[in-house]
Amino acid sequence: MNVHSGGHPTARSSAVLCLIFLLVSGCGTVTPSPTTSGSTGSGSAASAKVAGGPQLGLVWNAADSTLRALYGVPGATQLGAPLFAAGSYATAAFSAQTQTALLVDGKGNLAWMTLPSASPQRLTQGIPPGASIAFSPKGGNAVVYASGGASVLTISGLPQLPVTATVSSAAPIVAAAISDAGTLLLATSAGSNSVAVATLPAGGTRSTLTTLGGYGGMNFLSGSEDILLSDSAANTLTRWHNGNSIILATHASGLNTPFAVAASLDDHWAVAADRSDSNLVRVDLTGATAPAQYPCGCVPSQLSALSGNAVFELAAPGKSPGWMIEADDPVARVLFIPAARSGQ
Predict the structure, then answer these.
(1) Which one of 14, 68, 136, 248 is most buried, by most CB atoms within 10 A?
(2) Residue 113 in contact with residue 32, Cβ under 8 Å?
């Protein structure tokens, strides 16, 4: 199962044993939920819970519009049954740090739930079709936006007391991210393929950070206002600190039209995903080692944080296997996620 291994035979053997245990014991089963489309957690759905046991989080599969638990550990995983009937929600995202999911149904209603409950509670409405959801690194904040839209919705106070606010934009929105302190990062269209990036601290004033030749992904570091920013046209990955930037990786490091970037919780590692060659580039943010390139046996579509310091989903599992990267080993491991079992 390990495509690129860092030489940990004992860990890999344990992972295989763990997978066998999962398959035999069936501990990956999810308590069925009678939730219907747009459910707000009323009625019998209020008692629905996700089963316990080792788990990497919840993963959204756009192919069949289902949200499922991913049980096990990196290298030995099992995809659980859908928490809700296929098509009950149009999109969803999960924060492993706060164990919180945000879900949008086909009517534009936004709901939230915190594990082990599998009973979403309605938070607000009016979410545009095709919306994306991004959590802050530690999961206490989130931002919901639609590409080309004129505003974003921020959510603070997760997981206990979520509070929403709307932030408008004069230019069409390309992407958004939010820090653990609530600072909003907005990427907006600046003509042709260029993208203007601005910051808006919570309760502060919006200021322009830079302009990119092409949007290649952005994110905050955990517990920090430092920003990781990729330019897909220049093939650069840059770290911004107090308005100053330093280039971390370039095309010579392996960047080839990056589209997403993420960082480990301990702020040691950054990972960028390429669109042109399906490779991953890992950067040591301490500067102790040079950037390294890792191939994926997939076409990466995301860099979504799973449970762990530096575990990111690359492609969602469904009828076909999914993929993930465990980036904090001495040599990062790119691993597949088994497809859903027959009948699920």
Answers:
(1) 136
(2) no
